[in-house]
Specification:
MoaB/Mog_dom; 401 residues; Molybdenum Cofactor Biosythetic Enzyme, Chain A; 26 strands; binds molybdate ion; alpha/beta; Molybdopterin biosynthesis moea protein, domain 2; molybdenum; 4 domains; binds ligand LQZAQKY5; 7 helices; molybdenum cofactor biosynthesis; transferase; magnesium; 6-stranded mixed sheet
């Protein structure tokens, strides 16, 4: 659906907007990467064990492999089983084999006696403590962790460090993932200058680009920094025509002012607008569409609005296009430290801080105020039309620091 730039159009609810944004995305190609390069990606197919772990019954302790029925001994030492160097023979009646953690249980033995409860003199091993209480003590059974053919990581799950390790143990050296996304980021506004330049007059350091790059640092993206565009229609259209990316993120110029050019420039460059203006605070003027091969996400210029919309839309879009089954941010529940009034029709994300286990709204909530955002450790979520709530009530939050 195309929407024109009238301000009378209703605000799209956040969940509906996200569903429409995701519908604009096309799947990206998969690739196979060595384990160490796959961290942080999402599995593009089920990752299935090529081996059983443990591959045999192993000792869980350093001690002696014994036959439980032989206790209390004494026992005759006939050899050693170490991890990677199993004992080749069989433990017979009255015999034992020195064994170490991770070593294969020798044939004939059924229990491990820990060395703290045994004494050895030459080839004679005697019990000094209570000894194992039951047959089979201190053994890790074959397949305790997983078996050949088990799914270790399901398609769409993120490759966390533990999942990389389980895949390695499952015998895999390379993993199927979606390719890295190319994300172009461009700021708009005549007032903006690159950060780090001594300033006077009406100039403002461009902070959204660096903030967004930092927000994507843990995601599988290559960032294309398209810098700052002036508030000039022709320059903006020309820049948009050249975009070669999977996602184009713009900040600023999204609202209704005479210099808010992103929407008209997008269409003049051959792109299409899918929706504009959502029931969110901060972040109302966000827009989405397509341009060339890219999904376009037009974020508002106000820095806090850009942060909140990037949290709720840009990061989830990247996760979804990278194959995530669950691309949404992870919400948590906290206990409110103060009363909050009823909310209006815009879903609200309040900058907040945790003190003594309770969350409090952090000062003024103006969407230009970066220091408030920088000091906040969470956002309190107020659903659209939520009733008033009181100190002590549970509240949904997004942890941001
Ligand atoms: N008449 C109306 N005015 C506004 C409305 C409205 O509905 N009617 N919506 C307001 C809301 S809500 C927001 S949010 C802002 C967002 O507007 P834009 O996306 O057009 O943002 P700009 O006007 O370009 O900039 C807003 C503000 O942020 C500063 N900015 C912009 N880009 C950056 C950047 N890359 N780094 C740092 N700071 C940036 C810019 O200087 C402005 O101060 O519109 C309201 N107006
Ligand atoms: O909704 Mo705007 O994003 O408040 O400042």
């Amino acid at each position: 659906m195309m929407m024109r730039s009238g301000t009378a159009s209703p605000l799209l609810p956040v969940t509906e907007a996200r569903a429409r944004l995701f519908a604009l995305a096309v799947p990206v190609a998969a690739e196979t990467l060595p384990l160490r390069d796959a961290a942080g990606r999402w599995a593009a197919a089920d990752i299935v064990a090529l081996r059983t772990q443990p591959s045999a019954d192993l000792s869980a302790m350093d001690g002696y492999a014994i036959r439980f029925a032989d206790l209390p001994g004494p026992l005759t030492l006939i050899g050693e089983s170490a991890a990677g160097r199993p004992f080749p023979g069989t433990v017979g009646a009255g015999e034992t084999v020195r064994i170490f953690t991770g070593a294969a249980m020798p044939a004939g033995a059924d229990t491990v006696l820990v060395q703290e409860e045994a004494a050895r003199e030459g080839d004679r091993v005697t019990l000094t403590g209570e000894g194992p209480r039951t047959l089979g003590r201190n053994i890790r059974r074959k397949g305790l962790d997983f078996s050949h053919g088990d799914t270790l990581v399901a398609k769409g799950e993120r490759l966390t460090p533990a999942r990389i390790a389980v895949a390695a143990t499952g015998g895999l050296g390379a993993l199927p993932v979606n390719r890295r996304l190319r994300v172009a980021i461009v700021a708009t506004g005549d007032e903006l200058v690159a950060p780090g330049i001594a300033l006077g007059g009406d100039s403002l350091p461009e902070s959204n680009g660096a903030m967004l790059a930092a927000m994507l640092a843990d995601l599988p993206v290559e960032i294309l920094d398209l810098g700052i565009l002036p508030d000039r229609f022709d320059v903006t259209v020309a820049a948009f025509r050249r975009v070669d990316a999977d996602i184009l993120v713009t900040t600023g110029g999204a609202s209704v002012g005479d210099h808010d050019l992103v929407r008209p420039a997008l269409e003049a460059a051959g792109g299409s607008l899918d929706f504009w203006r959502i029931a969110l605070r901060p972040g109302k003027p966000m827009m989405a569409g397509r341009l060339n091969q890219a999904v376009v996400l037009g974020l508002p210029g106000n820095p806090v609005s850009a942060f909140v919309t990037a949290t709720l839309f840009l990061r989830p879009l990247i996760a979804a296009m990278s194959g995530a089954l669950d691309p949404l941010p992870r919400f948590a529940t906290a206990i409110l430290g103060q009363d909050l009034p009823a909310n209006d029709h815009r879903e609200d994300y309040l900058r907040a801080e945790t003190r003594d286990g309770l969350v409090f709204v952090a000062g003024l909530q103006d969407s230009s105020m970066l220091l408030t955002l920088a000091r906040a450790d969470c956002l309190i979520v107020r659903p659209a039309n939520a009733p008033a709530i009181m100190a002590g009530d549970p509240v949904e939050i997004l942890v941001i620091a």
